[in-house]
Amino acid sequence: MPVTTDDLARDAMIDVLFAGYAGDRVAGTVSLLRAGDRVIVVDPGMVPSRAAILDPLHALGLTPADVTDVVLSHHHPDHTVNIALFGEIPVHDFQATYTRDEWADRPADGVYLAPSIRLLATPGHTDQDLTVLVGTADRVAALTHLWWSAEGPLEDPYAPDAEQLRVQRERVLALADWIVPGHGSPFAPGPETPR
To answer: Is the pTM of this model over 0.85?
Structure first.
């Protein structure tokens, strides 16, 4: 059965705490999602300093103790290295939810962290990638590493299967009108978006 966003609520808020980059230095994009009683950090990875995550969080009136969940788009250190900032809360990835010493297996597809926040398995950059679909008042966003930035790259040097990456990009583009990439600022996809 094809995935749609018809049942995705439209009440979440997205804040990019830090827009990442890749070049001489590498930093991952770190995002905050809020919906109902859920406060979710996506990809708390490498940044110039922990203040790059904590200061924007504090500016929103939140502390690490307010965060209820962490989601990892994949397991590269540039997206995971600061996970411990958020204590003993559930961590979600492509195959399971981890809480303290509990490992609860489940596929990512179909997991709702809130009515407006759903996980989607999207192997592409790695075989273990997931995308977070988020329904906001004015758009459906995809937090994903299928793109590093608005520019792509067209050919991801880490992707184990270029065709699989292309298929997953097309799948996400059919669902979302806003992309929060792994190493850049959010963008609205268009004809020039690498596929």
So the answer is: yes
